[in-house]
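Next up, a chain.

===
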Amino acid sequence: MSDHLDWISHASGPLRGEVIVPGDKSISHRAIMLAALAEGTSHISAFLEGEDTRATAAIFRAMGVRIETPSASQRIVHGVGLHGLAKPDAALDCGNSGTGMRLLAGLLAGQRFDTTLVGDESLSRRPMQRVIEPLAAMGARIDAQPGDLPPLRIGGGMSLCGFEYTPPIASAQVKSSVLLAGLYAAGETEVREVHPTRDYTERMLATFGWPIEFSPGRARLCGGHRLRAAEVNVPGDFSSAAFFIVAATLVPGSELVLRGIGLNPRRTGLLRVLRAMGADIGEENRREQGGETVADLVVRHAPLVGIEVSIDQVPDMIDEFPVLFVAAAAASGRTMIRGAAELRVKESDRIAVMANGLRALGIHVIETPDGAMIEGGTFGGGRVDSVGDHRIAMSFSVAGLIAKDAVRIADCANVATSLPGFVELANASGFALAANPA
């Protein structure tokens, strides 16, 4: 990956054709983790070839798991069983992946050996208190840097006990970390949520044969069982599709078909919000794939109107807020976003960075501690800084499609962590996006 990469996004004509986005990042992470701990050989297809997911695979290789890559987006994982991981020779590098680090903290808390989780500069600034506290309550020993920042040093040989936990902040990563620790815990582990979050971990555990009860806002399992090898066909990543959904909605004359997109209801809050704003998003060929609902999405241009985004929708679209900010800026009227304070501790402070970028393009934005008020308007050209946040870089590439002048986006190299090949995929559908080393 280049140390620094800038993009220039220009106004485009209508977006047309079909788009096949890479496999879901969240599901790819979980498939590797559970396949590694399963008994037998698992096959994973449509695996996301991103830096984050490759980092997770490399971590399990470092702990003695044989993982083959017969072809791109394919993995064959020779599971070692729940207690078969080996002590790594060095710290385990999660790269830019908060998902990887938080889930691994729970999984590694139950091992016999000590481990250390490290990450890149961005991940090293992300607080881990929200997973450290519940895991410590289960009996884990996790030491962090001041402010509960990585690296995380996780003690081995601890006796974990299941418990009932209600996270103070809706987070699928926290829930998943606790459930993965629960695989190694004595007794029952139950997570209850005030606002239900995505249930990828629960569905994946069931796919690998672990007895688990789950419904929106609740998941319960007991330790002491086994994971069995499985076949996993990863659905298209909804978060990656989100940029194309908003782009086709905003650019006049557009009609895009997005094939095989995962439509987990705990992930697709953006669809509900965009439809409430007036978007024309149809679904075809709805089906089940790897325990998940998938469908082909047909997106046509439609004028949007500003709305007040329901707080209840926030957990189901937490990763899609940067591109929603762009949609809101292009809508007529005012959009109010509340209850999204978690955006301030993502790869960047996404509220502040998006607000600054939109203002640089001539949009009126008022920040609040947990959201923003966005007044719809017309994008001018200008320079915005993505501060190395992949979702912000891709969101402003969408803004450039309807801007009066070119939008220059700084620091885009980290897009490779989640959607490698985005520029080529985007331009094939009609974007006018150029990438240049800075």
User: Anything to note?
Assistant: Residues 25-233 form a domain with the UDP-n-acetylglucosamine1-carboxyvinyl-transferase; Chain fold (CATH 3.65.10.10). The mean pLDDT is 95. Residues 25-37 form the longest helix (13 residues). The radius of gyration is 21 Å.
